[in-house]
Amino acid sequence: MRFSAFVFDAYGTLFDVHAAVRRHAEEAGPEGQLLSEIWRAKQLEYSWVGTLMEDYTDFWTLTERALDFAFRKVPSVDPALRQKLLDAYWRLDCYPEVPSVLAALKAGGARLAILSNGSAAMLEAAVKSAALDTLFDDIFSADMVSRFKTHPAVYELVTTALRVYPDTISFQSSNRWDVAGATKFGFRTVWINRSGQPDEYVRHQPQLVLPSLEGLLTAR
Known about the structure:
Elements: E1 5-8, H1 19-23, H2 25-28, H3 32-53, H4 59-73, H5 82-89, H6 98-107, E2 112-116, H7 120-129, E3 138-141, H8 152-162, E4 169-173, H9 176-185, E5 188-192, E6 208-210, H10 216-219
Parallel strand pairs: 1-2, 1-4, 2-3, 4-5, 5-6
């Protein structure tokens, strides 16, 4: 079928969330990767808990708080790196195949959008830094509903704005929990399983599992 739009999660799907620490790997030292993993895990945890408590805080503030926790958890990494890592998060590297895949989809007439927990400012900075700003028709931020994924209101941003039914949207995410939420909402979902993770949300299966976005060009 021809989809109304291809909608992409941002962090972990288009942009490498570990690129910020990797950019300063020498200064971070041998436990830099551990710091990065804790940073990401806490960033997500804070978003879920805040949404469940109906106590919304924007994603950038949660990103700062998560990094502060990670420094406390991994004291071998110098907390003087804090500002460098936060600055780097605004211009994360995109994955290698992203520009060419998006350009090919766009050339084929597809409407492209981002649906992310990130704030509007974060997403604008990331897209511009990766030179992807001419490829996207829409960027939807969870800020618009003051809730984070997997709350249905976040996915509804797309269907409301585009005035389409959920099953006409192809939604791509590297986060299995996000794919589960989008599947339950009714999107056609594609799990970009970059690191070969085992499945864990068996009740809400994606329609397709790919190791990268490249498979979208042949799987449609």
